[in-house]
Structures are given as structure tokens and as C-alpha cells.
Write a structure and sequence with these properties.
The protein is mostly helical. It contains 21 helices and seven strands.
């Protein structure tokens, strides 16, 4: 017997893999169909036992589009302050689940709606409050950044925490010192192309108007020389590094929040110094030397395996892509490189490419003639081997359900059935609604339900 049990959400389901039957004693399937989250025990009691369930419930609602019962909403408002009692690693884990798995924008909105953002990220909460109270504000740059992040990460292709930490610090730097839109575009383009020359050239050739955000960007009509852009990009990178301190140092946070006397600040920081240090290293390449090597990136396909491991090169590429798309560049619609281009080398910083550039050119010159001869002889060039991606939680759950032979004892409802009836039972899944009527589920619906169930346990 496999049990899908969650005390802080709507599920309390039992699955029998022998006769393909689901036992539902608390109307969990109905809650799934109604997209409703509720607790098995009263929400106030559940959140008193473990206030981390508040964050977990918000994460599930943001990721799956579920709504809360009135009981849960009331309990969240009452017990929100108890989150301060959680350890920093526990909060970091829950926040990473919210922001790295494809539901960052909706998670931030829910955190702000229930006044939890002002506990976890008070600087961003003050920004939210100011933007929503001012008239005519419809688009917030912070939300745009995270909405573009959500477009290429998901439950089975998450990013490392350094990506969303970098986005928070980058946005904080723009609030501290607004920049010319072209400087912001160039900043993202250099990260995306991983070459100063290619990044600046792309930004110069991009003739479409850029998105202007208030208060993050300045007057877009002031022309800038290449030297001015280089200096401003370098200073912006330094400000991003300084902004990371707000996320990890309580004293720096309190000092910064003193500029917002109307915004509460409990002084909580949950991002570790190791995570902050790794994020700062992403921007050091621009702050110490604004001109990265000229080799550039060899492939513009996202390597999700490297991104999930926090590879600096891949994380910079993702940051650049998010920033460019946020500025209205629409890099996803730009022409891609030929398929013969190889996969990006997983180096740890952009400077490493500089040492390899001279030897790479010699190697390309030596292999140019053989490649041409192969092409002339109409031989097919073998494509690079695809990177194997580990099974998603959904696939692992499906494999588990199919491979189980022995399990726990069945509920009392099954004790009267003999072994022959169990083996010869139809393969369709049935839902037993607690001694009421059984619902037959065909194979297609069964797969959809299992996908829904497995999504809740990530």
C-alpha cells in the first residue's frame, strides 16, 4: 500500500498498486478537482504545530494555482509572525522551492498579499507597497524579472539559488542607483554573450525601443559612448555586489530600511554567507575587469543540468537572458546559432575563456580543412550527444507505482476480498470515498491524477 499523506494540505490518499485502487477518506480528490487547499485538522492548530506549513501552503498555491479555504486564510494572517521562529536554513529551503521551480512571480505576489514578504524580504516589500500605491503603476520591474525566470525553470528543471539571489541584488542596485536603459541592456547582453565585444555590438545594433521602468531606469534619450557604457556597467556590477550584503547582513538591512520608516523590518536574514559569496562571484568578472574575453559563448541553448548545479557560466547566461527579455529585447526570438555549434564549456568564470582563446583559434585553423572535406563528401556530421536529464519527481513516482510488488496491509475494506479477486480486478484505478461509492477512473484520467498528486510532494 502506498500512502499519499500530507497533514497540512488536502491529501490523505491510499493507493493499492495490486488492484489499482485509490482510497480517499477525506474528499482529497474533490479538493484536487476544485483546486482547493485545506487542512485535515483546523488550520490554526496545524500552523501552531509547524508554522513552516504556511510557506509550504503558499508554495503549493502559487505553483498549482490553488486557492485557500477561509479557515486557512484566517490562520495565515494570525500566525504569519511565527515564521520568525523558524531557522534560517528552513526558511531558505522553502524560499528556494518557491523561487527556483517556475513559480517565483506568483509566490512573491502571494507572500506580499499575506504580509509575509515584509518579514522575509522587507526591502522588496517596501518596493511593492510604493509601486502599488502610486497611480499609473502597472508594471513592476521586479515582477518582470521573475516572470522571465519562470519561463525557463520548472519542477524538473530548477535553477540554483544563486540565480534568484542575483536577480534580487541586481534589482536592488537599480533602485539604489537608476541606470540608463542602454546600460542595463548592455549589462545583460555581455552576460548573455559572455563577451564584451559581442555584448556591446548586439546592444548597439538593437534598434527597437527599450522598456523604461520607473524608478529603475533613467532618461533613455541621452547618448553614451562605448567608454561611458563600459564604466557604468562596471559600477553597476559593483553596486550589485554591495546589494547582496542587504540580504545576508542584518545590520546592513536595518540601516537600509531606515530610509523607509513606514515599512516594518524585523531584521530577519536567511540567505547564507556561502550562497551570497557564490552569487557575488558571478558579478566580479564585470566589477574587476569590465572587458571579458572575446571568445564569447559557443551555444545559446540553456543547459539546465549545469544551471541546476549553479555553474557560474550558465548562471550568468541565464541572468543575461532574463535581463535582456525584461528590457523588451525578446532574445528568444533572435536567430540561433547553427546546430553544429558545440555545447558551452562549464567553466567557473568568464576569465577562464581568455587563457584558452589563443589555443582554440590554432585548433580551429588546424581542423578547418578536414571539416570542409567531410562536408564536400556529403557525409553526415554527427550531432553532439544529448545530455541525460535525471528523472523528474513525476517520472519517479510513476516508476515507483509500477514497480511495487509488496506493500503494507490493505485497509479494512479490502480484507474480505480473496487473492483471486485482487489479481483479476480490472486495471482501472478506483477511488473509494470512505465507504460511500467507488469511482472508476480510466487510464488517461488516472495518469492526470497521478501527475497532480506527485506535484504536491516536490
Amino acid at each position: 500500500m502506498i500512502r499519499f499523506v500530507s497533514r497540512n494540505c488536502c491529501l490523505f490518499l491510499f493507493f493499492d498498486p495490486i488492484i489499482h485502487k485509490i482510497y480517499d477518506y477525506n474528499n482529497g480528490m474533490k479538493d484536487l478537482l476544485d483546486l482547493k487547499l485545506r487542512t485535515l485538522v483546523p488550520a490554526h492548530e496545524s500552523f501552531t504545530e509547524d508554522c513552516a506549513r504556511i510557506l509550504r501552503g503558499l508554495r503549493l498555491a502559487a505553483r498549482l494555482g490553488f486557492s485557500f479555504s477561509k479557515d486557512i486564510e484566517s490562520a495565515i494572517h494570525k500566525h504569519a509572525s511565527s515564521i520568525l521562529t523558524l531557522s534560517a536554513p528552513r526558511i531558505m529551503m522553502e524560499m528556494n522551492y518557491m523561487l527556483s521551480f517556475g513559480a517565483a512571480e506568483s509566490s512573491l505576489r502571494l507572500l506580499h498579499r499575506y504580509h509575509i514578504l515584509e518579514i522575509l524580504l522587507p526591502f522588496q516589500a517596501a518596493y511593492f507597497s510604493r509601486q502599488t500605491t502610486e497611480s499609473g503603476q502597472h508594471t513592476m520591474m521586479l515582477m518582470k524579472l521573475f516572470s522571465h525566470l519562470d519561463k525557463f525553470v520548472s519542477c524538473d528543471k530548477p535553477s540554483a539559488p544563486s540565480l534568484w539571489i542575483g536577480l534580487l541584488a541586481f534589482h536592488q542596485a537599480l533602485l539604489d542607483k537608476p541606470q540608463h536603459p542602454f546600460v542595463v541592456l548592455t549589462f545583460g547582453s555581455v552576460f548573455y554573450h559572455q563577451s564584451w565585444e559581442d555584448g556591446l555590438m548586439f546592444a548597439r545594433k538593437y534598434v527597437q525601443p527599450l522598456v523604461n521602468f520607473d524608478p529603475e531606469t533613467l532618461d533613455p534619450y541621452t547618448p553614451l559612448s562605448d567608454d561611458e557604457v563600459a564604466e557604468k556597467v562596471k559600477k553597476l556590477a559593483m553596486r550589485v555586489i554591495d546589494s547582496i550584503d542587504i540580504l545576508v547582513d542584518a545590520d546592513v538591512l536595518n540601516n537600509t530600511m531606515s530610509k523607509f520608516p513606514c515599512s516594518p523590518c524585523p531584521g530577519l536574514v536567511f540567505i547564507s554567507k556561502n550562497a551570497a559569496h557564490g552569487t557575488a562571484q558571478l558579478f566580479h568578472v564585470l566589477s574587476h575587469k569590465v572587458v571579458p574575453p572575446s571568445k564569447g559563448r559557443s551555444s545559446f541553448e540553456m543547459n539546465h543540468q549545469l544551471l541546476g548545479k549553479g555553474d557560474p557560466s550558465e548562471t550568468r547566461f541565464a541572468l543575461g537572458k532574463i535581463i535582456m527579455n525584461t528590457m523588451g529585447c525578446g532574445i528568444d526570438n533572435q536567430p540561433a546559432l547553427p546546430e553544429s555549434v558545440h555545447v558551452t564549456p562549464p567553466d567557473s568564470s568568464l576569465q577562464k575563456l581568455n587563457a584558452k582563446s589563443s589555443s582554440s583559434k590554432k585548433q580551429n585553423a588546424a581542423t578547418e580543412k578536414p571539416i570542409k572535406e567531410i562536408a564536400d563528401s556529403d557525409h553526415a556530421i554527427e550531432k553532439p550527444e544529448e545530455i541525460c536529464v535525471s528523472k523528474s519527481p513525476i517520472q519517479e513516482l510513476m516508476a515507483t507505482l509500477e514497480s511495487i510488488i509488496e506493500d503494507e496491509d490493505l485497509p479494512s475494506q479490502l480484507e474480505g476480498q480473496n487473492a483471486k479477486e485482487k489479481v483479476n480486478s480490472p486495471a482501472d484505478v478506483q477511488v473509494d470515498q470512505s465507504i460511500t461509492k467507488e469511482q472508476s477512473v480510466d487510464k488517461k484520467d488516472k495518469r492526470k491524477q497521478v501527475l497532480q498528486l506527485s506535484s504536491l510532494f516536490k
